[in-house]
Amino acid sequence: MPILSIDGDDQSAAPASDFDRVARFYDLTYADFDDDLPMYRGFAERCGSPILEIGCGTGRVVLPLARAGFRVTGVDISPAMLSIARQKVEQAKVAESVSLQQADARHLHLKVRFALAMIASNSFGLFVSHEDQLQVLHSARLALRPNGLLIIDMFNPDLGLLSSEDGQLFHDFTRVDESTGHTILKMHSRQVDLGRQTIDVTFIYDEMAPDGTLRRTLFPFATRYFFLNELQLLLEKCGFELENVYGSHDLEPYHSESDRIITVASPAGRRQTRTQGKK
């Protein structure tokens, strides 16, 4: 008979970061997603090294940039995520080009100043409070060179779609984890607060071993969605000047029906003409 265990409620075994609980599922979740990598490669070629990714996870963006010859620093609050990233960096033999550091994005203390910084894949939305958002942007500004660039990639909210999906349960994928042989089924549900512009999300991972044992991992978290004017005001308040905004990873012009809001900003009053950067 299959045995069911549930991971997520045992506070005595709380991870160092909430994201530690799902670090081993991260690469399965993003196995088919690389749409944004050419965009980041293009900005890296424009700005040059060194490059900073805030919220680097398991190195999905860091690793391709390092393979392309750029010097990259990735910071993340999750030790488990960073442990997986370090293994991948070592396997790819790019350790000399990559620095991975555990850090809270709201309080970065980095000795290096960067030509390019990025917050990819809706990660900025994980900072739900206005205070946290300002702290992250302030830290990012201090981490940049005077003529550096900050890229924030967020989804463009469709209020009709958000309302229609509120409270429903969705199946995301069923995949085999080749490292364990376990079958992973991922689902999610979300509760949307249109007034506060927040989404309470629950990821559900059902992991079935070959012997039929089933383990369920629950990962609840909150995220915030933004409209363009909000992002622009936040950036300006933290000393940035909006250089451009795009509506897709192909850098198409932003409009109300765009899938993405991708802001590109630089420290206010310090923009300089850029030539092709050095790796």
What layout of secondary structure does this protein have?
Elements: E1 4-7, H1 23-29, H2 37-47, E2 51-54, H3 62-67, E3 72-76, H4 79-92, E4 98-102, E5 114-119, H5 130-143, E6 144-155, H6 159-165, E7 169-177, E8 182-193, E9 198-208, E10 214-224, H7 228-237, E11 240-246, E12 260-267
Parallel strand pairs: 1-10, 2-3, 2-5, 3-4, 5-6
Antiparallel strand pairs: 6-12, 7-8, 8-9, 9-10, 11-12
Could you characterize the architecture of this molecule?
The protein has helices at 23-29, 37-47, 62-67, 79-92, 130-143, 159-165, 228-237, and strands spanning 4-7, 51-54, 72-76, 98-102, 114-119, 144-155, 169-177, 182-193, 198-208, 214-224, 240-246, 260-267. The chain has 279 residues and is α/β, with parallel strands linked by helices. The protein has two domains: 4-14 and 159-224, no CATH class; 33-157 and 225-267, Vaccinia Virus protein VP39 (Rossmann fold, 3-Layer(aba) Sandwich). It has a seven-stranded mixed β-sheet, sandwiched between helices. Strand 7 (169-177) and strand 8 form a beta hairpin. The longest helix is centred in the N-terminal third of the chain and has 14 residues, at 79-92. It starts with a strand and ends in a 12-residue tail after the last strand.
